[in-house]
Design brief:
This protein is an alpha/beta fold. It has 3 domains: 150 residues, Rossmann fold, CATH 3.40.50.2300; 178 residues, P-loop containing nucleotide triphosphate hydrolases (Rossmann fold, 3-Layer(aba) Sandwich); 152 residues, Helicase, Ruva Protein, domain 3 (Orthogonal Bundle). 45% of the residues lie in helices and 12% in strands. It contains 21 helices and 16 strands. The strands form 5 sheets. A 5-stranded parallel sheet has the order 2-1-3-4-5, sandwiched between helices. It has a 5-stranded parallel sheet with strand order 7-10-13-6-14. Helix 6 links the parallel strand 4 and strand 5. Helix 8 packs parallel to helix 9, helix 16 packs antiparallel against helix 19 and helix 19 crosses helix 20. The longest helix has 26 residues. The chain is globular and about 85 Å long. The N terminus and C terminus are likely disordered.
Length: 511
């Protein structure tokens, strides 16, 4: 029996991979990472395994194929695989035995079970046995690409966490997700996330764009009892309404043009695990109403269906960079949905509120991107005190994501083992686009009084001015005070008021 659709066999056709590219924006896997991800496909049906190998080979993965259960057992015992795609009903060695062997050989292996006889009982059995997910026959090449893409993303995240732990980074012990930072506000966020992780309570995360909301969601999931099941991320602002509804809830054959077969949605994929709804407020009101029903009773009705298609058990974590209560008042967010999801609210502080964490994060990104972009054993550049000082003084309107981008940009141009100077960091050398000049935009619709907004902007100006004048003086505080045309005592007091530490200054403290 053929298990692939006709369109999926010709994986090079332009129309076939389009759905996979759409979802790959939600869980991206770096092209350079794919060849290092080892996948074993074990199925006794030649057409299916060759089609799987073709689809995954085009994607760039390192694929091994076997049609014999005994050979699959030997391969699993001989070398580790990151992802194992296996048929549940192989003979004489069945998929259950292969699954147990794969997980015994490498507990980090992601096992996906293919089954031609999908049923609730069989699905529960393989999930209890440790399978990451299952793939019912028949399936398309696009469905395979999407599922393997999610699994590969999980593999890549786990590798980065392990590598950081081995380098001695500030990683939470036992976690698969690294959370870097020791600033009091950030530690409060992590403490609350750790406490709520052990429960099944819904969590609503707020914070500015780029502050790390998805990282906190991943942290909660991987410390929960659902950690062995998938965490499915959906960016509600990235997809148009019709596509978002179809991806979340699935659709029935004939529901719309192009719906050639029944398709389960991401809610069914997340069954037993966690669904992360990023930018929830951007979701349309009709989809919010449909989501509310799933949260209340676990019932999923696919697009175009008149009956219940699935009952799911999903933990929900929602996030937004806007004020959710303002969105409720404005009618953009359903009040009943908001309070269903806001069982435990968590706020992620902006990077400018955790300035002491900037050196730690910058060094981590410097090492990460150097290893990613540079081959061989070339020594990693080191941040100079002047660079750390300048990084700490920046306002970071884009938060941690902006810091990542700035460091990656610098890494591409740096020499091995070099001291990173302020002029090597893009935002500092680009005086023509000083981010502080755009700070006035922050006064709009903040709810602050005139005096609060004024004090906040003046504080940013002070930090920026003091940093620039100290760098200009080469770290000599007496000279910096003279350049600023203030006495040294006043200069020291201003530095102390704005949390600018003298021990991070380049050069000497006095003449």
């Amino acid at each position: 029996m053929s298990t692939f659709s006709e369109s999926s066999l010709a994986v090079a056709r332009p129309a076939s991979p389009a759905p996979a590219r759409t979802l790959s924006q939600l869980v991206p896997v770096e092209p350079a990472t794919k060849p290092s991800i080892r996948i074993l496909v074990a199925d006794d049906e030649r057409t299916l395994r060759e089609s799987c190998a073709s689809v995954l080979g085009v994607e760039g993965y390192n694929v091994t194929v076997t049609g014999r259960g005994e050979e699959a057992l030997e391969l699993l015992r001989r070398r580790p695989f990151d992802i194992v795609l296996l048929d549940l009903y192989m003979t004489p060695v069945n998929g259950t035995e292969l699954l147990a062997t794969a997980l015994a050989a490498n507990p980090e292996t992601i096992a996906i079970v293919i089954t031609g006889k999908p049923s609730v009982e069989a699905s529960l059995e393989v999930l209890r046995a440790g399978a990451w997910d299952f793939l019912p026959k028949p399936f398309t090449g696009s469905q395979l690409q999407i599922l393997i893409g999610r699994a590969a993303h999980a593999v890549a995240v786990a590798r980065e966490s392990r590598a950081l732990h081995e380098r001695g980074g500030a990683v939470e012990p036992g976690d698969r997700v690294a959370v870097l930072g020791n600033a009091p506000k950030y530690r409060e966020t992590i403490t609350l996330a750790r406490r709520v992780a052990a429960t099944d309570a819904s969590v609503f995360i707020t914070g500015e764009s780029g502050s790390g909301k998805e990282l906190i969601a991943q942290f909660i999931h991987h410390r929960s009892r659902r950690a062995s099941r998938p965490v499915v991320a959906v960016n509600c602002a990235a997809l148009p309404e019709m596509l978002l509804e179809s991806e979340m809830f699935g659709h029935c054959k004939g529901a719309f043009t192009g719906a050639v077969r029944d398709k389960p949605g991401l809610l069914e994929t997340a069954n037993g695990g966690t669904m992360f709804l990023d930018e929830l407020i951007e979701m349309s009101k009709p989809i919010q109403a449909k989501l509310l029903r799933v949260i209340q009773d676990g019932v999923v009705r696919r697009v175009g269906s008149e009956t219940t298609d699935a009952v799911v058990n999903v933990r929900f974590i929602a996030a937004t960079n806007r004020d959710p209560e303002e969105a409720v008042a404005a009618g953009a967010l359903r009040e009943d949905l908001y309070y269903r999801l806001r069982v435990v609210p968590i706020h992620v502080p902006a990077l400018r509120e955790r300035v002491d964490d900037i050196p730690l994060l910058a060094e981590h990104f410097l090492a990460t991107y150097w290893n990613r972009h540079r081959a061989g054993e070339e020594p990693v550049p080191q941040l100079s005190k002047a660079a750390i000082w300048a990084l700490r003084a920046h306002s970071w309107p884009g938060n941690v994501r902006e810091l990542q981008n700035v460091i990656e940009h610098a890494v591409v141009l740096l020499e091995p083992g070099a001291d990173v100077r302020p002029e090597d960091i893009p935002f500092i050398s680009d005086h023509g686009s000083d981010p502080e000049l755009g700070a006035l935009d922050d006064t709009v619709d903040t709810g602050e009084s005139y005096y609060e907004a004024r004090d906040r902007l003046l504080a940013r100006f002070d930090r920026r001015f003091l940093t620039r004048v100290v760098i200009r003086a080469g770290g000599n505080l007496s000279k910096a005070a003279r350049l600023a045309k203030v006495d040294r005592t006043t200069f020291y007091r201003l530095m102390s008021r704005h949390g600018l530490q003298r021990n991070l200054l380049p050069g000497s403290e006095d003449e």
